[in-house]
Design a protein that fits this description.
Helices cover 85% and strands 0% of the residues. It has 213 residues and is an all-alpha fold. Helix 3 packs across helix 6, helix 5 crosses helix 6 and helix 6 crosses helix 8. The protein starts with a helix and ends with a helix.
Length: 213
């Protein structure tokens, strides 16, 4: 309830994001891109609730209630997942309505896979942001995220170079993904999301247990 009331104070920002998404849809932008954009914006707002909690010794007050630090971390993940899921569901409905008014044809299977892809990308963003936010706070989070993203890019580049050096061929994986059915892709995306969030939660819980207020 506290986090919902905090987001309610950001309704102007949410309205701006919604209007921007509608403009993008009417200009022919991909619904998948729009949904990904919306869910990432909501995920960013979710992580900012941690900053609000830390203001004016807020954490000391929060833990006077009958909750543990692990419960606090778990609530942030559940809140983030619920918010991004709600935004993607609502965004999907609006996107389909806009496409219908423009008489645009679309592949149902491709749209469904795209929706779950948007959800997975938001989950990845949440899984990276929350541990960093809890560890470094709002002031150092931007720098830490830049370092983290840079590390991911360098790791991807290193893997690509190693694959070339040792003549490793991953084309079979791309072919397998293209040949997979919709149900299989959705199940794999959900399984990956659960694993990623589980690992991120363990990291965040460990960070929270060591913090002093």
């Amino acid at each position: 309830m506290k986090d919902l009331k905090l987001l309610k104070n950001q309704k102007s920002f949410l309205m701006i994001v919604a209007v921007m998404c509608l403009v993008l849809l009417f200009r022919g932008q991909s619904p998948v891109f729009v949904m990904s954009y919306m869910s990432v914006m909501v995920t960013i707002l979710t992580t900012t609730t941690v900053s609000y909690d830390e203001m004016d010794n807020g954490m000391n007050f929060i833990f006077t209630f009958p909750i543990s630090r692990r419960h606090y971390v778990l609530e942030k993940y559940l809140f983030g997942v619920l918010m991004m899921t709600g935004v993607i569901v609502a965004g999907s409905a609006v996107s389909m309505a806009v496409l219908a008014t423009q008489s645009v044809t679309y592949d149902t299977q491709e749209c469904i896979v795209g929706i779950f892809g948007a959800l997975l990308s938001s989950v990845l963003f949440l899984a990276m942001m929350l541990p960093v936010q809890l560890k470094f706070g709002s002031e150092k989070t931007r720098i830490a995220m830049l370092i983290l993203v840079g590390g991911v890019v360098l790791a991807a580049y290193a893997i690509r170079q190693l694959a070339r050096l040792f003549s490793l061929d991953f084309s079979w994986l791309m072919i397998r993904i293209q040949q997979a059915g919709m149900v299989e892709l959705i199940l794999c995306a959900l399984a990956a999301a659960v694993v990623i969030l589980g690992i991120s939660y363990l990291i965040s819980a460990a960070v929270m247990m060591k913090k002093q207020f």
